[in-house]
Specification:
- The complex is a heterodimer of chains A (about 350) and B (about 300).
- Chain A is mainly α.
- Chain A has one domain.
- Chain A has 16 helices and 2 strands.
- Chain A has a two-stranded antiparallel sheet.
- In chain A, helix 3 packs antiparallel against helix 5 and helix 8 packs across helix 10.
- The longest helix of chain A is centred in the first third of the chain and has 30 residues.
- Chain B is globular and about 65 Å long.
- In chain B, strands 1-2 form a two-stranded antiparallel sheet.
- Chain B is built from 12 helices and 2 strands, in the order αααααββααααααα.
- In chain B, strand 1 and strand 2 form a beta hairpin.
- In chain B, helix 6 packs across helix 7 and helix 11 crosses helix 12.
- The longest helix of chain B is centred in the N-terminal third of the chain and has 32 residues.
- Chain B has a single domain, classed as ABC transporter involved in vitamin B12 uptake, BtuC, CATH 1.10.3470.
- The chains are: A mainly alpha (about 350), B mainly alpha (about 300).
- The interface between A and B is large, with 42 and 44 residues.
Chain lengths: ~350, ~300
């Protein structure tokens, strides 16, 4: 690793560790930012690198959220009673129970969505292009509608996740706990994605994006890699969902967990805004998007969705390559691309 | 799960008739979708929201004291211009580009439409009372609201008029020529830009008719657009682009499926079952095609 990179990463980690103490009022926002970056990065892995534009990663996110909360409650108390009658009033988690449940819940929230992705991957990933996009959109929304009809996880009235243990008196503790949990997840995701970017796996994903038939003809078992790519996304989406459920404290089937109309589209948008198919693009895109979104929600409350919709249209139409793509176009040398002037002129003339 | 429907055969008749009448309406929306998909190669996620907007136009006529039945004439006229404006504003920039871009861009439009409708008409579930009465069949054991029969009749009428228009008129020929080969049409003097705008306008007008009929027969709510989009998408992928009889039949099939799902699984799973059916149809087609080493594209 070069010295410049080392300084960059060290300063970013320091900033991340210090952030909740520098801006104590924005702890929740910072936590959500970490989660958004994780979602955008993992979406980018298959949307940007593999070329399979999914609206359905929300399925794993919501699944993780429900699983984590259900395990956390179900390990110690009867789940049905909890969801039926506001169980947080009658049952109380002790400190150990809370953290044990959270830990085990997150484990399950990571593993089960990954398995689900592996199971449905063979069927769904056989679709290509916009059929895949629409199919996953349907999958995410169907999951929300179905979860809204299942009694044991609270059906339409929602599911209150276990409140933070009362024994810990420090009022800042809850925010700090969730912040550092999501920050650790962010770092793990970043390391993993960076590792993938240096591996053969990424090249295979790119080959699938650029021309799947040719990749197959070259002897790559594309289906295997596509499924693995989706499972990676599902793993991190599930974890992110589990943490988010605990942070929000309340799970609704269509508005919080399987929020395909919002979160499901946001992750696509964040990756596009920053630049699909780059390591840093989703990180920058998610940060920028979070700022914009919170700005809308604060300053033009009431019109925030209108502004958001217009933002989506503008991003998609005018910046389909995103910020990184724009920079790449402008300063190709900094991205290690060498342009042959003669060749470029010939290309222009051909057009 | 509730299998009451299989114990009482009369319910099967009821559900089937309801489903068929509903399905004709879906087919009308799907025809608009097929039109724009075939001609302009875009997938419009805001389709359902155009439908709901058309419905609200009929509803506001009802509030003003005019019979909402007239909405089937006023709504398409208004919606044609809405569609035209939408094309000039946004859609003309996504034609000829990746389909995914059109999906996302129209998703943004859908969000804007939903929110604006929420501001203007409120977030309540509303219905425009047509007071057409009901028809009783089979010794009063099957009830059919006349408004549903009216809606099916009007949908068929519009579909037939549109088919004749597309076959005979100059613009219709231009649209079909552009769908076949946009470049050749341009060389032969067709103003494709205008054709695209007209196509999107006609699609929006069809949505307007369907919306006005939905306002009479069902309920309106600003956020229920997406299921209509998905239904029309589903009908189009089953029936193919530009095959009108197939569109009508698969529309009716979908309507019947929905009514049966409603009876058997319960109303809370109705929308969920529509979305699941979409997934199943796509996966089924994928496996069928993969035997020949082909794929949906």
């Amino acid at each position: 690793m070069k010295q410049k990179d080392l300084i960059l990463y060290a300063s970013l980690i320091t900033l991340g560790l210090a952030a909740p103490f520098i801006f104590p009022a924005f702890k929740v926002q910072l936590t959500i930012l970490c989660i958004l970056i994780v979602l955008a990065m993992t979406w980018n892995l298959q949307g940007g690198e593999m070329g399979y534009n999914s609206f359905g990663n929300i399925l794993f996110y919501g699944l993780g959220m429900y699983l984590c909360a259900s395990i956390q409650v179900g390990m110690f108390f009867p789940l049905a009673e909890w969801t039926e009658s506001g169980g947080e009033k009658t049952f109380e988690h002790t400190t150990t129970q809370f953290f044990q449940g959270m830990g085990f819940g997150l484990l399950v929230a990571a593993v089960i969505p990954t398995i689900v992705a592996g199971l449905i991957g063979y069927s769904i990933l056989g679709l290509r292009g916009h059929y895949f996009a629409i199919c996953t959109l349907g999958l995410g929304i169907a999951a929300g509608e179905i979860a809204g009809g299942i009694e044991i996880i609270g059906a339409g009235q929602g599911f209150t996740t276990p409140p933070f243990p009362k024994d810990i008196v420090d009022p800042e503790a809850r925010g700090e706990f969730f912040y550092f949990l999501s920050f650790v997840l962010l770092i793990l995701t970043f390391i993993f994605v960076k590792w993938i970017y240096g591996s053969r796996f990424k090249l295979i994903l790119n080959a699938i994006r650029d021309n799947e038939d040719k990749a197959e003809a070259m002897g790559i078992q594309t289906m295997k890699y596509k499924i693995v790519g989706w499972m990676v996304s599902a793993f991190f989406c599930g974890l992110a969902g589990g943490i988010m459920g605990g942070l929000i404290g309340y799970i609704d089937s269509t508005d919080v967990a399987f929020d395909g109309r919002e979160m499901g589209v946001f992750m696509v948008l964040m990756a596009i805004l920053g630049g699909k198919g780059t390591l840093w693009g989703p990180v920058i895109g998610a940060t920028l998007f979070h700022f914009l979104k919170e700005g809308f929600w604060t300053f033009i409350l009431g019109w925030q969705y209108v502004a958001l919709g217009i933002l989506i249209v503008v991003i998609v139409i005018y910046f389909p390559e995103g910020l990184m793509g724009w920079l790449r176009e402008k300063y190709p040398n900094r991205f290690g691309e060498v342009i042959d002037e003669k060749d470029r002129k010939a290309q222009v003339e051909l057009k | 799960m509730d299998f009451l429907i299989f114990q009482a055969p009369i319910l099967i008749v009821q559900a089937s008739l309801d489903g068929i009448l509903l399905g004709i309406l879906f087919a009308l929306i799907a025809y608009g979708m097929a039109l724009q998909w075939g001609v302009m190669n875009i997938i419009n996620i805001a389709q359902g929201d155009l439908v709901i907007l058309g419905g609200y136009i009929a509803y506001s006529m009802y509030l003003a004291g005019i019979h909402p039945g007239w909405g089937v004439i006023v709504s398409p006229i208004v919606m044609f211009f809405v569609g035209w404006g939408l094309y000039k504003l946004v859609i003309n920039k996504v034609v000829d580009r990746d389909l995914f871009i059109s999906i996302l861009a129209t998703f943004g439009i859908a969000i804007v439409f939903q929110q604006l409708m929420n501001f203007i008409f409120g977030a309540d579930v509303v219905v425009a009372q047509s007071e057409y009465g009901t028809t009783m069949l089979f010794d009063n054991s099957v009830t059919l609201p006349n408004s549903k029969i009216f809606s099916a009749f009007i949908s068929l009428l519009y579909a037939v008029v549109l088919v004749i228009y597309m076959k005979k008129s100059k613009l219709g020929r231009a649209i079909r020529a552009t769908a076949q080969n946009a470049r050749a049409a341009k060389i032969l003097g067709v103003d494709t830009e205008k054709v695209y705008a007209a196509t999107f306008g006609i699609n929006a007008a069809l949505c307007g008719v369907a919306g006005a009929l939905i306002a009479i027969t069902f309920t309106l709510h600003p956020y229920v657009g997406l299921p209509y989009t998905v239904r029309s998408f589903m009908i189009v992928i089953v029936a193919g682009l530009g095959n009108l009889p197939a569109v009508a039949i698969s529309g009716m099939g979908l309507g019947v499926f929905e009514e049966f799902a409603d009876y058997i699984l319960g109303t809370e799973f109705r929308i969920g079952s529509v979305f699941m059916l979409l997934v199943f149809i796509l996966v089924y087609r994928r496996f069928k095609l993969s035997r020949k080493r082909e794929y949906l594209k």
